[in-house]
Amino acid sequence: MKKVFSSNITVKTIFEDVNGLKAGNNIWYSGVKIGTVKSLRFLPNSQVEVMLNIEEKSKEFIRKNALAKVSTDGLIGNKIIVIAGGTQKVPSIEDGDELAVAKVESTEEMLNVLSENNKNLLSITDAFKKISKNILEGRGTVGMLLNDDRLYRDVDETLAGLKKAATNAQTLTASLSAYSTKLNQKGGLANDLATDTLIMHDVRATMFRLNETVASANAMVNNLKTVSADINSNSKSPIGVLLHDEATAANLKTTIQNLETSTSKLDENMLALRQNFLFRRYFKKKAKSEAKEEEVKKEDNKESGVKP
């Protein structure tokens, strides 16, 4: 039954605890028996070295990175070695190789975990009991919500307001989306300003010229302010004298009146001179010459097509 006469290879594995494993127990791989436990021996560091006899015909399916663990054949059966895992890229095992051990939780460890979980469940149950009692007695926010109708209505109204605000936010978002879509349409001013480099260049140039114009206007205004201040402060300059000296202004008015009177008298004298028989012939001759020049000028304009 132990296939004594079949060809085998021997590999080893080292366990911290074999849980009652003994020589002659079976070795399984993917649910198939492939060998038996050859021997067990203690190592100096409280570990157990287990030698495994594996059928040679099965070694090609077991990879060097496969893991071994101690298990049970059924619920109350004998202990067995189970080999599992391994990747196809890794070579198959050979005689004398050592298999790594898969970590397995012992029954004692599992019972300890279950005991700890029971304690935690008990604590959680006690906490839930206290919470449910406070809720039933109307303590805390949840208890007040369950027992106070007024507070419940307030919360309900608040939720309705939040729902309405969310609806308005969605409407606003849709409007903004539609507006942004229109801005992105080609041909619009905003799209041209954002995408047309020529327009932006012209806008920048225009702004630069506007800045220069404003600067020039500021300089001119400053100059006018300076001149005005100088005129107001310097009463000895010609303009200052005209603005501030009343005597000079009166003399200037008198001079202008005298010039107007002299001009009028000069016109009268010239008219009288033209009526004088000594100069009458001169002025008639001059008038004829001017009339002749006017006729020649009209004839030239007609020939050239220019309207008089």
- Major sheet characteristics: 7 strands, mixed
Cα shape:
elongated
Helix content: 55-70%
Q: Look at the helices and sheets and give the structural class.
A: alpha/beta
Work out the strand percent. 5-15%
Could you name the ranges where pLDDT drops below 50 across 5 or more consecutive residues? Answer: none
Based on the coordinates given, report the CATH architecture of the domain at 8-104. Beta Barrel
Strand order of the largest sheet: 1-4-3-2-6-5-7
Radius of gyration, rounded? 60 Å
How many beta-strand segments?
7
**What is the name of the CATH topology of the domain at 8-104?**
Elongation Factor Tu (Ef-tu), domain 3
Number of helices: 8
Quaternary status? single chain
How far do the termini sit from each other?
A: 144 Å
